[in-house]
Amino acid sequence: MNSRLHGTGGVIALLGLALCATAQAQLVINDTLTGASSSYNWKALNGACLTAGNNTGTIPACVGLPYYSGKTQVGGVSGRLPDAVGSGALRLTNGDTTTGTNGNSQTGAVVSNFMFPSNQGLQVTFTTVTYGGNGFVGDTGLASGADGIGFFLADAGTPASPKPVSVGALGGSLGYSCSNGNATYDGVVGGYIGVGIDEFGSFSSAYDNTNTGATDIIAGFTGAVRPGRISLRGAGNTNWAALNAAYPTYYPSSASSYYKAAALHDTCRTGYVWDYSSSSKPKQTTTALAYNYPYLASSQLPSNVSLYSQEATNMPTRGNAIPFTYTLQITQNGILNLGYSVNGGSTMPVLTDKLITASNGPLPANFRFGFSAGTGWGSNVHEITCFKAAPVTAANGSAGANSPPNGRTQQGNQAYAAYYSALNASGGLTSTTINVNSTTGAISLATTPNWDASCVLTGGACNATGATSGTAQASGVRAMLTWNGAAGAAFEWASLTTAQQASLSAGDASSTDLRLRYLRGDRSNEVANAGTLRTRGSVLGDIVNSSPTWVGPPSSPYAITWADALYPSATAAETSYAAWAGASARAGRTNLVYVGANDGFLHGFRAGLYSGGSFNSSAATNDGRELLAYMPAAVLSTIHSTTPALDFSNTQYSHNFFVDATPGTGDLFYAGAWHTWLVGGTGYGGNATGPIGNNTSVANGILFALDITDPSQFSQTNAASLVMGEWTSSTLACVTGACGSSLGSTVGTPLIRRLHNGDWAVLFGNGLNSSNGDAGLYVMLVNRTTGARTFRYLPTGAGPVTAGGVTTRNGIAQVTSADLDGDHITDYVYAGDAFGNLWRFDLTSSNPGNWAVTPGPLFQTAAGQPITTKVQVSSVPSSGAGSKPRLIVSFGTGQQLPQTLTSAATYASGSQALYGIWDWNMSAWNAIAPATGQFLGLTAPQSITASSLQTQTIAAASVATTPPTRTVTSTPICWAGTTACTGTGAKYGWTVALPSATEQVIYNPVFVNGVFVVNTTIPAVSQALSCNARPASGWTMAVSVATGGATPKSFFLDSPLASGVSLDGVGSLTMLSTKTESVALFVDKDGNKQKLRIDPGATGVGSRINWAQLR
User: Fold this and answer.
1) What 8-state DSSP symbol labels residue 578?
2) For the segment 1020-1066, what is each residue's pLDDT rounded down to a tens digit?
3) 125-135 average pLDDT score
4) Same domain (yes/no): 43, 127
């Protein structure tokens, strides 16, 4: 029995994020610290207390603590303690109400009386807030807060032989290292790692602590370093007890307390053992300390970010403080990563992939945890609001709140999955074979990918495929292109303009190609190779919102002779598509998978080819080798940023978006020949200030087009013929004048379509956050004779809205073309906007000057629910013999705004819904369309509101099933215009409210045989001030496009009667079928590829008419 896959394209592409594995039965510490007591055994010292405590645990309550006797306990939820149980925190020091001394010269610490084993590695996550101080300004003249907060890992010994619980020196040592001058001088016993959240700047200073430190001191101030940084120190055991035990002669027990302090100060300051056997004549020996808490690394906060807030404020509150979340990871083989996130923003690295055992020695068998904080002349409330520790294999999450992966699927015998690492901004793209059982027809994915493009570009061992070694694709042979402002150019130093060279070398001593070679994949100047540029985990950057797009042999269903059903007398310029597509040069051309990455490039990777109609999957052709890369000029000018955290090659790089949108591809005809183009945007990339996480700021829009007809011509010498153009908000001009001010972030996928004027065109929404702040459709016409590109902009007139001096910007993210009469020529374009309007653009005229939006929106969602995904346009039969079908536009509402340096990804507020809207305005169309292409309409005017839609209701989820399921009502629709349906009973479509408070649609829906299928998302709830987090989740919903209700048979074969299943799917689903099985493939929120059995005949009502070219 031969089983074959059936579908609508050549491959399946899956995009997902490979997150950490699910927690197993391992020791996991999760101390919320918000309640009346801690669940764990801590040793509390000095001012350490729980703000909502009741003295029932090992950490005392703040209220009544003798340490704070006579002090006003500021901060907390209301500005004064105590806090209510469940809303508290671990406090280490107090603050002030003014510029006084209420919180001065205080210390507080907690150290675990429990051990944590290191044999499975360790990942620690904790959140701090610092606020409500006295506004102290240090002798550097810079605001510097108090001393800061320290966190440390120390050798705990073993249960049979535990090491003592201890803290290190006070002041700038932050309770970890020894001190060069403080009265409390001992370093922590068995210290392994110390993290300094350093307000004043002393923790990383060799003047204050140990014999090593940062070198970027402030001129004129001895020993002072920059305030406001996160620093890391290594192992040490410099304390009197250890020195006395190791060198009893040099550090005699009989020494006075004065000489003990002097001996410790000298030892700490120099890193050498001192001989204090004769206290009057101490001398330095030649024996160096094995470990003296060496300075390892620092990360300076961005200039617009402060560790503390609400200084000299009478009623400072925790809710107005800035939360910082830290993640420290040490693998069982000693690889350390430390990063932090500000207010849920992207992870900023302090130290990445450091083999800590090389400098610190072997990992101890067990760790002890410690927190410490101190104030001096300056004060601040120092609090810990969350602490978690787990083995690396059980860890979940990272310092920054990750956006969910953006899954997308197509169809065929290869599956492509893209992923990213939030910790080091690296990415990957894997190719996996889809297998079909020859006996049963069952569909499955191979367990091991064929290749990972990250490994191909980077070389070395490949985790994805299991290869133990591999040679990196040489940077010098990569075909890499850019735009020089007038034409395509090789991405080589000599081919760049003077301005482009200046952009890449800004701030350097001289203008060199150092960064260009780095961007090309040269790793010789990375820090790991004794260079100055950031060491990358992978040459391929992270892939977040760009879905893999496969392009193989041309396969569009065009007739041999082109004919326009509306203008049958028009002469078409096109020659035979079938003859062109069938020629060996096209039928056997190399398949490529294209994807945008946040390394600044649109990449094209080799993915096999077809020979004689059969797929050739040999390693020689299906190997993931990069054949093409394009960096938009607008990205080239921003990838080397003046902000270190946004500067791709900077060692302090956190994350930025560069090429972050899914490209569109298609065949088109001009200049007497057929071509294949790729057209894409940069998503949220290309902005000098980084990603925009709001709807008020102005974004830079970018669009580029490449001719990808013949992969054998992909070379740098052919750059001018491969790059068709690049356009931005500042350069885009329309036939009617400048129109670039309406171009915002190009987050959607452009469409390549034939229009009624005889030209092919690129259709795309104007994007989000444009300068004009409006919503509209761009049409890029490609002249059929010359290939010249011209633009038209069709505005809707909706947006922006200004209130209270704040301008909220509208925009269209995704567009859907509709070919109503089946001649493969676009008649209308439908799109929703960020304000919740549903629009129809009329392109039926043969005169481009007549193209325009149909006046007024077809529908406005309740309370302006945003529409930021594609809409589906479907033909649904109506009742009665000879009745015309209805045209239904279905969609979901919701919006995700990206994570920035200082904020987590945010989502549309308020309840969201699914909709199906009848486009009743068909009179003008029916007057010109052939009879077979006409649709049921009504006479104008008609107005559709939420109340004129049939409501279908989602019942409460059934959690007794696996997976949990939902049911949806199936109330028939009493359609407007029918005899029995008048007044308020007349309906123009349907609506389904999504029941979860934050549930929404941010992924494109699909249409399957009359069923509207979409993955909803319920965003993770991760309060920055709490350990209590609800992970992201979501439902796969499948409703009848005709009614919005349940289908006659369940779409989900293994969940009878269900209209929704809880699978946490992301992106769009892909439908595949054999003679015996039909499945939907998708990616879940954890990046796992999933298979769902479906019944493609669940309804059988309706057909898709928004034609899409099949690749």
Assistant:
1) H
2) 876 566 566 667 889 999 999 999 999 999 988 888 889 989 988 77
3) 96
4) yes
The last residue of a domain, from among 368, 394, 420 = 394
Closest CA to 587 of 549, 613, 567: 613
List all residues 6 or more positions away from 98 whose beta carbon is below 8 Å from its beta carbon. 134, 312, 314
On whether the CB atoms of residues 344 and 165 are closer than 8 A, the answer is: no
Q: Is the peptide bond before 877 cis (omega within 30 degrees of 0)?
A: no
CA distance 380 to 406: 41
Residue among 687, 676, 727 at smallest CA distance from 703? 727
Contacts of 716 (CB under 8 A, 6+ apart): 479, 480, 481, 490, 491, 492, 495
Asked if residue 737 and residue 659 are part of one domain, the reply reads yes
Domain boundary among 345, 370, 394: 394
Backbone angles phi, psi at 737, to 5 degrees: 130, -175
Q: Which amino acid is at 67?
A: Y
Q: Are residues 340 and 449 in the same domain?
A: no
Lookup result for tokens 């003295």: 55
Q: Write the single-letter amino acid at 123.
A: Q
Domain presence at residue 247 = no
Tens digits of per-residue pLDDT, 8-63? 333 334 433 222 222 233 588 999 899 999 999 999 999 999 999 999 999 999 99
Three-state secondary structure of 484-528: CCCCEEECCHHHCCHHHHHHHHCCCCCCCCHHHHHHCCCCCCEHH
Same domain, 431 and 388: no
CA angle (858, 860, 863) in 5-degree steps: 180
If DSSP codes are grouped into helix, strand and coil, which group holds residue 53?
coil
Residue 450: pLDDT band with limits 50, 70, 90: very high
Cα dihedral: 949, 955, 957, 960 (round 10) = -150
Cβ atoms of 478 and 629 closer than 8 Å: yes
Where in the sequence is the domain holding 964, given as residue range(s)?
A: 12-18+405-1104
Q: At residue 1090, what is the residue type?
A: Q
Report the relative pairing of strands 90-93 and 1089-1093 from DSSP bridges.
Answer: unpaired
**HSE-CB for 860 with a 13 A CA cutoff:** 8
DSSP element (H, E) containing 633: helix 633-636
Chain mean position to CA 480: 25
Q: Is the pTM of this model over 0.85?
A: yes
Domain CATH number, residue 323: 2.60.120.200
Do 791 and 924 have their domain in common?
Answer: yes
Using an 8 Å Cβ cutoff, are 750 and 679 in contact? yes
Q: DSSP letter string over 186-245? A: PPPTTEEEEEEEESSS-TT-TTTSSS---S-BPTTSTT-B-SSEEEEE--B--SHHHHHH
200-220 as b/e, with b when 16 or more CB fall inside 10 Å? bbbbbbbbbbbbbbbeebbee
- Extract the tokens encoding 190: 């068995």
770/807 Cα distance (integer angstroms): 11
Q: What are the helix and strand counts (H, E) for the chain?
A: 11, 69
Q: Cβ(1100)–Cβ(1009) under 8 Å?
A: yes
* pLDDT for 222: 54
Domain annotation covers residue 269: no
H or E element in which residue 258 lies: helix 257-270
- What total of structural domains would you count in the chain? 2
1099: which DSSP letter?
-
Give the pLDDT confidence score for residue 1066 in this predicted structure: 79
Q: Does residue 846 have a pLDDT over 80?
A: yes
Six-digit token string for 504? 């890449």
In a domain, 819, yes or no: yes
Q: DSSP string spanning 372-418? A: EEE-SSS--EEEEEEEEEE-GGG----SS-PPPP------SSEEEEE
Assess whether 420 and 346 both reside in one domain: no
Residues 63 and 140 occupy one common structural domain = yes
In a domain, 272, yes or no: no
Looking at the fold, whether 100 and 202 belong to one and the same domain comes out as: yes
